[in-house]
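A protein record pairs a chain with a discrete description of its three-dimensional fold. The following entry can be read in just this way.
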Amino acid sequence: MHSPSAVRAGEEVPVDVLTEYLRGKIEGAENGIAIQQFLDGHSNLTYLLSCSDGRQYVLRRGPLGPVAPKAHDMAREYRVLETLHPHFPEAPRPYHLCEDSAVIGAIFFVMEYRPGLILRSEVPASCRATPDHARLISEAFVDCQVRLHSIDVTHGDFAGLGRPEGFLGRQVQGWRDRWDRARTDEIRDMDSIGDWLTRHLPHSPPPTLVHNDYKLDNVIFRSLKEVEAVLDWEMATVGDPLADVGLTLCYWAWADAAGAGRGPTPALTSRPGWYDREQFLERYWERSRRDVSGIVYYEVLGMFKLAVILQQIYYRFRRGQTRDERFREFDQQVAALARQAASLAERQA
């Protein structure tokens, strides 16, 4: 579900300071603010701000401690939402950006709160009562990604969001660099995958908006057939849409089989009734008419990226920058994803 809880120890926000700062910047702040936290994320910290007059907002800030260069860029995410919201209503409306880290200890922004259902490990009984609920959710999820990839990025508003020329090559090299910076143990498969991705770089289709982390638990559903919102836009850019699809398939169809489904990846989509990999790709092709015959390369890239993301989180845990026990065995999930990606690359060779 999409429910906040009490703030986790060590991740508190100074309520009085924040309330005074937001007075006159967002409506309702002058009446007082109560803060709760959404605890399901794995990196950025996300809070629900409830004003005394009933208005609600979401505050997003980066994780505690040092982070990788250009990672968890809240100012960039705010500007992405500012650009995207008028063109893609599933992107929440941003209200205020604070680039003064002295206020709460980090750069943060405030955006609208979207109620609805986020699916992680289970589907609520009220949804399961509909016999074909898994199919309906699968279709709504794929169709939303197609809508995202159909936005006209030649519109001047999107000029500053990315450089599509050379996008894929920069992605591969950038994630290889992130891996090198976050290493804690030697995993040879990660190096061999990086080499394979560099050698087999394909020609990209025309560029689109790319979310770069489009997965089931980054989507809020209004109903079984309707997406209310898409979350976590910090890595969004303009580039190769198949890179988006490949990473989504990694979460949807591969990570659970690789043994990485114990972490941030829901196992829901591996259950009966949900779209399998082939159905997902067929629906995407039918709606977008975009050639997906070379998707395996992008799936390997997706697994590599997810492995690096998990490794970055594990690196922060090993260094004591987070005490969240969910991250203790992420190193095993990194190794499992690397093995799966290497196996898929070998079969493709």
In short: The first helix runs from residue 15 to 22. Residues 143 and 342 are 30 Å apart (CA to CA). Confidence is low (pLDDT under 50) at residues 260-266.
